[in-house]
TrEMBL record:
Organism per entry: Bacillus yapensis
Protein name (database record): Glycine transferase
Lineage, top ranks: Bacteria, Bacillati, Bacillota, Bacilli, Bacillales
Pfam family, one: WbqC
Keyword check for Transferase: yes
InterPro entries: WbqC (IPR014985)
Length: 236
């Protein structure tokens, strides 16, 4: 079994879904501290006039120093309506606007104050659209034993071992965190994921803006085009 582990990101970029497609099981890792101004409750889309802008949802301020699993979405404001309004400018230029808006609406309408549940629902809906059948679990609901954790890279080793994975794949930009010797001693192959540079026609823009939310990719690219993009990577 090939395993991937990542914190619950909000409408992450296409590279995230490339890795999800490559593995057999995906762990939504919410047993670590929430980091403010990260990708847990926000991401980037095109700005209507120039560059990019953030979209996202608010969290309770008292949650900032808690683990992700204990951070609560602040539902006091209508953040869903705000997001949908921020996406309106795609309407006149994005060829897949209606389809994408349907997926977004269905993804964010989930009534919950739990970040992991919301973001997993988002990822599952996008994966269903792209015919990705990877299995999802939330780490805080799996009763993992973390007693042997000493270093940052040990989290993945312990989870992989307890799930019976024979290969763990991590984005290559985190390579320095992991001990290949520890993985080898546990009989688990350690691999690293390197996505290719992907560009598509962001209609009306001269210069491509990379690493935007999967929302932007779905707006401008057909389902078949994105499914082809999902295979543009290397595992080393």
């Amino acid at each position: 079994m090939k395993l991937g582990i990542m914190q619950p990101y909000f409408f992450p970029y296409i590279g995230h879904f490339q890795l999800i497609k490559h593995v057999d099981m995906w762990v939504v890792f919410d047993d670590v501290q929430y980091i403010r101004h990260g990708w847990i409750n926000r991401n980037r889309i095109l700005h209507p006039s120039e560059g990019w802008q953030y979209i996202g949802f608010p969290v309770s301020k008292k949650s900032y120093k808690q683990e992700i699993k204990n951070v609560k979405i602040s539902n006091g404001m209508d953040w869903r309506k705000k997001i949908l309004n921020q996406l309106q400018h795609y309407k006149n230029k994005a060829i897949c606007y209606e389809t994408t808006m349907d997926i977004i609406n269905d993804s964010i309408k989930l009534e919950t104050d739990n970040i992991s549940e919301l973001n997993m629902n988002i990822m599952k809906n996008v994966c269903e659209y792209l015919d990705i059948d990877t299995r999802f679990i939330i780490s805080s609901q799996a009763s993992f034993n973390y007693d042997s954790i000493e270093n940052a890279g040990d989290w993945a080793l312990e989870i992989s071992s307890q799930l019976g994975a024979n290969e763990y794949i991590n984005p290559i930009n985190g390579k320095q965190l992991f001990s290949e010797e520890k993985f080898n001693n546990s009989g688990i192959k350690l691999s690293f994921f390197l996505p290719n540079n992907i560009e598509y026609n962001q209609i009306g823009l001269r210069d491509f803006i990379s690493h935007l939310s999967i929302i932007d990719t779905m707006m401008f690219c057909s389902k078949d085009e994105i499914k082809d993009m999902l295979n543009e990577y290397e595992v080393i």
